[in-house]
Amino acid sequence: MSSARSVIRIANRMVPMIVIMGTIFMLSHQPSDDLPVPEIPYVDKVCHFLIYGFLALSVLYAFADLKNMGRGNLLYPAVLVFCLLFGLSDEYHQSFVAGRYSSGADLLADVAGAFVFLLVFGKRIIKGNLSVAGIKKS
Question: Considering the entire predicted model, what is its pTM?
Answer without folding.
Answer: 0.84
